[in-house]
Structures are given as C-alpha cells and as structure tokens.
Design brief:
This protein is 44% helix and 11% strand. It has 313 residues and is of the alpha/beta class. α1 packs across α2 and α8 runs antiparallel to α9.
Length: 313
C-alpha cells in the first residue's frame, strides 16, 4: 500500500510566455522553487493550473514536466525523498473523454491521479449516483494507480457526504482527499470516517488549518503554498500546541485573504518580485488588468510581514 507523504502541497500555477503559450521552462523553475522551499508534494494540473482553460495536451504535459523535474531534483539530493506528485486534469463531461484524459495523466506516472468530485454525477442528483459513476470510472483506470478526490469549486463545488467518503475509504483505491469544505468541525468528522483506511485528508483552507492538523489532517494543499510555503512547512513540522504555532496560524489565516485578489496573477507578481522567478503576470482564468496598484500594495505588505515572521520563527 502506498504511503502518502504528509505536509505542504502547492496547487501549481501555470506560467505563460508573452505569446500566451504555456511556459514550460518556467514550469521547471517553479518545481525547483517548491523543492527548495521544502514542499512535500505538488498538486499538478489542478484548478490553480487553470485546467479549464488548457487543452488536453497541455494538461498532460504539465504533469509530465513536473514528474520529470521532481525526479531530476531528487536524483541530485540523496538526503531527501522526491516530492509526492498528485495530478488531475479531469475536466471533461463525457465519460469516454474522462477515461481518456485520466489514463493519459496516469501514463505520466504521478504518485496519484486525482478525480474532481463534480465530474461524477454531473447533474448533482444523489450520493448513490455519484458512487455508481465513480465506481464505473475507476474500473477503467490502471488498477495499480493510487487515486484521490478534489472538491474543486469549478464549475460548482461538490462536497463529499459521509456515505461518499466512507465508500472511497472502503474501496482501498483512494489515498488523497483535497478538502475544500472550510469547516474545522466537519473535517474532524471526516477524519473519523477515514480512520483506519488509506485515505488521507489535506486541508485547502488556511483559516482552519491548525485546528484540523491537531485533529490529524495530513497537511495543507492550497493556493497560498504558491506564496510562502516555508511558513506552512514550519507550522506543520512544529509543536502544534505551542504559542509559535498559534501565531503562525494567525498570520497564515489573515494572509490567505489575498486569495481574493486577482489570482493567479497576484501569485505570479509575488514570485516575480520576491522569489526572482521571472514570468508573465497574465492568466487565462482572470484579467491581469484587474490586478491594480492597490492590490500590488496589499501583496507587498503581506510579503514584508511574511519575511519578518519567517526570520523570527
């Protein structure tokens, strides 16, 4: 049975060239930055990657380049295990297209293939229909490939019910749940529903992170790991009962409000200015013209405070 690496998993953004094509050279630079920041894994070809705006070739190639670069980095550093790469690219409506795209992702050999919860029982009818659709879908995927589920907010958020989570856990096929319920009490219940199974829960919500880690969540898989993953790593690896952890949580919860700025342009701005990873600020899912001087100032203030906190912790 696969052992899931617990920790920090950035939801990888997609950089573009001036011509608007995917910038695969910068993809490699970004993977290396995640590595140097101490990330434990990467969620490739996800919503932050703008998969709804990429063709299948690019969704699959993103996974290929991330897996390849991760292996290269790990081969040069024998003191660390490779990051765990989970990947989706699961956007199609038709069943046959879903099978084809997920098989293509699986062929690139990520550590787990992630299903998007709103792609099964697309009409959002019943738990039973979702389970039936998921059962049918996973039967068409390589039996040796570990799977996961992502409660992606696009095109609508389909939260898993108790029955659905227990079914996933019971199959023995699922290892990774990217939880987007943003409810610490519900996550505590979900952790109990998964207890004793291979299914691990990763919280995507910074504001509820510490409480869920104390209850046994496996880590953080979210937007803000594109900005200051080292602070998340310090939280996860520290004494969760300490005052230091509470101060880190207080900052991370407030800092995560920048997700409401023009994302992913704001993350690209941060990486350009503070991490010296050159990339265009443009995105396909948002209009960079909305990323105003005011929003840039907000990012600058957050970055300054994050660096001050990082130096003190």
């Amino acid at each position: 049975m696969m052992k899931v690496i617990r920790g920090v998993y950035p939801t990888m953004i997609t950089p573009y060239t001036k011509e608007g094509k995917v910038d695969y050279e910068t993809v490699e630079n970004l993977v290396e930055w995640y590595w140097k920041q101490g990330c434990d894994g990467i969620f490739a070809s996800c919503q932050s990657s703008e998969i709804w705006f990429l063709n299948r070739e690019d969704r699959v190639r993103l996974v290929r380049e991330v897996v390849k670069k991760n292996q290269e980095l790990a081969s040069k550093d024998h003191n660390r295990k490779p990051m765990m790469i989970v990947a989706s690219g699961h956007v199609s409506d038709a069943f046959e297209d879903q099978v084809a795209e997920l098989r293509a992702v699986a062929a690139e050999q990520p550590d787990a293939v992630i299903l998007i919860s709103n792609r099964m029982d697309i009409e959002n009818t019943t738990e039973e229909k979702w389970i039936a659709d998921t059962e049918r879908l996973i039967a068409e995927l390589p039996p040796e490939m570990p799977l996961g589920v992502y409660e992606c907010p696009k095109p609508y958020k389909r939260l898993l019910t108790e029955k659905m989570i227990k079914w996933c856990a019971k199959t023995g096929r699922f290892y990774f749940l990217k939880d987007t319920c943003c409810d610490a009490e519900l996550i505590a219940k979900r952790l109990e529903w998964c207890r004793g199974s291979s299914l691990e829960i990763f919280n995507a919500n910074a504001q509820t992170l510490l409480a869920t880690l104390r209850n046994g969540a496996a880590g953080y898989c979210g937007v803000m790991a594109n900005i200051h993953p080292a602070l998340y790593s310090k939280l996860l690896k520290g004494d969760l009962a300490s005052r230091t952890s509470q101060v880190l949580q207080d900052f991370l919860g407030l800092a995560a409000t920048v997700e409401n700025l023009t994302y992913p342009c704001c993350a690209k701005y941060y990486l350009n200015k503070y991490e010296t990873i050159p990339m265009e600020l443009t995105a396909r899912s948002n209009d960079v013209r909305l990323f105003t001087a005011y929003q840039q100032d907000c990012m600058d203030q957050m970055a300054d405070l994050a660096r001050e906190l990082n130096s003190r912790v």
